[in-house]
Amino acid sequence: MNLTVALAVLEVLGDYTLSDFVGFLLSHPTLVRNPTRTRFIEEWPAFLKYCLWSPSLSSPTDHFIMDYTTKKLTNEVAQLANKESGWHFSARTASAEQIDDFSISDMASRLETQAPTLWTLLGHLLESDPALARRRAQYLRAEIEVPAEAATDVVVDWDDEMEFWANDVYVEPEEREEVEGVGLHGPRPRKRQRRAADRTQSRRVMIMSIMMITTNQKCNPIASVLGFFCHSTSAPELLIEVLAHAGLSVSLTATHSMINSLSEKSARFIREIAQTKTAAFAYDNFDMDFKSYASTVERPGTTLQHATSALIFPLEHDVEVSDLKFSDELWSTDPVNLRLPKEQWRRKRTWRDCIPQGPNVPGPSINTRLNAWHFRYALVTFCDDFKGFQSLLGCVRDNA
Q1: Which of 102, 132, 208, 238 is the most exposed place for a label (fewest CB within 10 A)?
Q2: Contact, 241 vs 210, CB < 8 A?
Q3: What distance in Å separates the CA atoms of residue 158 and residue 154, rounded to the nearest whole number?
Q4: 141 CB contacts (<8 Å, ≥6 apart)?
């Protein structure tokens, strides 16, 4: 294009602005298949790139892109913090199902769908150095591709060794024992590749969680789970407060409210199971020694505590209440039942009740006659001198 053509285009535009022309070109239905329109759309990224590099257009273009991106990302975070997004977690009404169903992977998938721009941006920011990211990927890929017999020829410099430990720091102790002695080129490199991707994913979720809880304190699923985890591991309260100030956990008060809510619901659930009469209880006595840093007059060195734990097992496999109908009868006469008067306690039964004897039967009692028969049976069976009396032994029923 030369100056003459450019002046001709400007003259044709007249009082219309360039934005008027572009808007009409892209919106009018008659020009949908126009070659100029198609070429304009194809060259639009190059035009934006030119605007960013042009001395006269770079500043306004940069400000516009920054404002637009900021509004877009802010809107995505605001949408995540809304109640409709499903990320609100109330510590006062927490349930065991919410804790059990929590998953970082599921949360990552949902966040990627609900805030794709922010998710992509965080991925690039966490891998801000392309050369280092490419080098790390090549390092892990080389570990898998290099044969085991050539492993001794691989020279690991200082930076590669740091990357090795950085990638291996999240390996569980059990897995370290499993792969111990396998070498650098066994199954461990592939695990480190998966863990590298998982760590990036987890960090995205954590950063977005901090943004969400900062925008709306009720939007705190990860913070609540971390607070619950710290409480379950007996973490110091000061640590929970530090994590809460960092936006990684809920406050200590909220954590206690969540624990109380879970305890109340568990107790109610246990009562409901027990009332069905189709459950079994198992009790276990145990001792716990609560160590103290220093003994005082109020708290001497006695730290051993005795307690009893109980487990309740719902009886499955088609067990019905009618199968346990005898339990009501037993409980109605059981001395353990403190609500029963002593007169209604059932009489203690012994083995003598299995062979009752009438009050007016002459001679020895039935148990004496049975013991005598078994003694005679042993004599005529195992002693040769008494085997001649085998025919006189008779039947045990005759002595009952």
Answers
A1: 238
A2: no
A3: 13
A4: 193
Q: Tell me how far CA of residue 139 lies from CA of 142, 169, 200, 246, 300, in angstroms.
A: 5, 16, 17, 34, 58
| Dihedral, CA of residue 105, residue 107, residue 109 and residue 111, to nearest 10 | -150
DSSP H or E run through 305? strand 304-314
Residue 275, SS3 per DSSP: helix
Q: CA 353, CA 357: separation in Å to the nearest integer? A: 9
Which letter, b or e, does each residue of 354-366 get, where b requires 16 or more Cβ atoms within 10 Å of its Cβ? eeeeeeeeeeeeb
* Residue 45 φ then ψ, to 5°: -60, -40
- The 10 Å Cβ neighbour count of residue 343 is 5
What span, in angstroms and rounded, lies between the C-alpha atoms of 150 and 143? 11
Question: Euclidean distance between the first and final Cα of the chain, in Å?
Answer: 127
Say how far apart CA 113 and CA 86 lie, in whole Å.
Answer: 13
Q: Are 298 and 277 in contact (CB under 8 A)?
A: no
| Tens of pLDDT, residues 171-184 | 444 444 444 444 44
**Please, are residues 130 and 171 in contact by the beta-carbon 8 Å criterion?**
no
Tokens of 384: 């040769």
Per the listing, tokens 């309740």 go with 312
Paired strand residues for 304: 289
Give exposure, 368-388, as e/b (b: 16+ Cβ within 10 Å): ebeeebeebeeebeeeeeeee
> Could you tell me the pLDDT band of residue 24, with boundaries at 50, 70 and 90?
confident
- What is the 8-class DSSP label of residue 93? G
Q: How far apart are CA 144 and CA 189, in angstroms?
A: 6
- The letter for the amino acid at 52 is L
Alpha-carbon gap, residue 72 to 290, rounded angstroms: 53
Q: 262, 233, 230: which is closest to 244 by C-alpha?
A: 230
Using DSSP, state whether 338 is helix, strand or coil. Answer: coil
Q: What is 64-78 written as a DSSP string?
A: HHHHHHHHHHHHHHH
**CA 145 – CA 139 distance, rounded (Å):** 10
Q: How far apart are CA 331 and CA 210, in angstroms?
A: 56
Q: What is the pLDDT of residues 54-72, one digit of tens each?
A: 888 889 888 988 999 999 9
Angle at 156 between CA 155 and CA 160, to 5 degrees: 150
Q: pLDDT by residue (tens digit) across 119-176?
A: 999 988 888 877 776 776 666 565 555 554 444 444 444 455 444 444 444 444 444 4
